[in-house]
Amino acid sequence: MTTKLPRHPVKATLYADFPRWVLRLNRELPHDPGRVWDAITKADEVAQWAPFRPDHDLIAHGDVWLTPTDGGEEDQPGRVLEVQSPSSLLYLWVSDHLHFDLTPTDGGTGLGLGYTFDDRNSASSIAAGWHLCLAALELLLDGKEVPSVVGEKAEEYGWDDLERQYAGLFEENDASPEPMDSL
C-alpha cells in the first residue's frame, strides 16, 4: 500500500527573471523553525524527502555533491551560497538555484521554496516534483515513514495529475505581465 502524503492545493508563483524563471511554493508547517531548519540542512534528513542526498550538511558556504535519490544519474555538483540559520538557505544544484526561507508563525513555520531554472516548458514538471517533495518533508517533520516520491515513484503519488494541474495554472496566468501568483 502506498503511504498517504499530506495534500495541498496546487498553488504556486511562477515569474520570469529573464533569461531564467522562478517558481515559488509555500507551506505552513506546524513545527518550530529550528526543527524545519534541521530537515532542510542535515544531509541524512534531506535525503529522505528531496530528490538528492548531499555529501554533507548544508550549513556552511562551499561546494557540495548531490547524489540523486532515485538511483539515476551520477553525482551532481552544488554549491551552498547563503546560510542564515535558521531563516534562509540558498544553494546551487548544477545551475539551478534553490532558496529556502523560513519565517516563524503563530502555528510554527512558514516555509517558502524558490526554485530558479532555465526552461519555462519544464515549470509544471518542476512544480509537481517539488510539491511531492514538500509533502514528504511534512511526513519527516511529523515523525512518520517517508516514502520515496522521486523518479518513477512520483507517479504512485499523483505526479501526473499534479503536473497537469500546474500546467493549467501556469497557462491561465501566461497572459499576465505580472508575477503569476495563485497564493
Essential attributes:
9-stranded antiparallel sheet; Alpha-D-Glucose-1,6-Bisphosphate, Chain A, domain 4; globular
Residue-averaged pLDDT: 93
Q: CA-to-CA gap between the ends? A: 32 Å
CATH class: Alpha Beta
Counted beta strands: 9
Task: Kindly identify the CATH topology.
Answer: Alpha-D-Glucose-1,6-Bisphosphate, Chain A, domain 4
CA radius of gyration is 16 Å
Shape: globular
Helix content: 25-40%
Q: Any idea what the CATH superfamily is called?
A: START domain
User: What CATH architecture label applies?
Assistant: 2-Layer Sandwich
What string gives the helices and strands in order?
Answer: EEHHEEEEEEHHE
Number of DSSP helical runs: 4
Which strand-content bin applies to the residues?
25-35%
Give the spatial strand order of the biggest sheet: 3-4-5-6-7-8-2-1-9
Largest sheet: 9 strands, antiparallel
In the predicted model, the low-confidence regions spanning at least 5 consecutive residues are 179-183
The secondary structure category is alpha+beta
Total count of domains:
1
Question: What does the model show?
Answer:
The protein is α+β, with helices and mostly antiparallel strands. It has a single domain, classed as 2-Layer Sandwich (Alpha-D-Glucose-1,6-Bisphosphate, Chain A, domain 4), CATH 3.30.530.20. The chain has four helices and nine strands, in the order ββααββββββααβ. It has helices at 33-41, 43-49, 123-141, 159-173; strands at residues 13-17, 20-29, 52-54, 62-68, 76-84, 88-93, 96-105, 108-117, 180-181. The protein has a nine-stranded antiparallel sheet. The longest helix is centred in the last third of the chain and has 19 residues, at 123-141. It is globular. Residues 179-183 have low confidence and may be disordered.
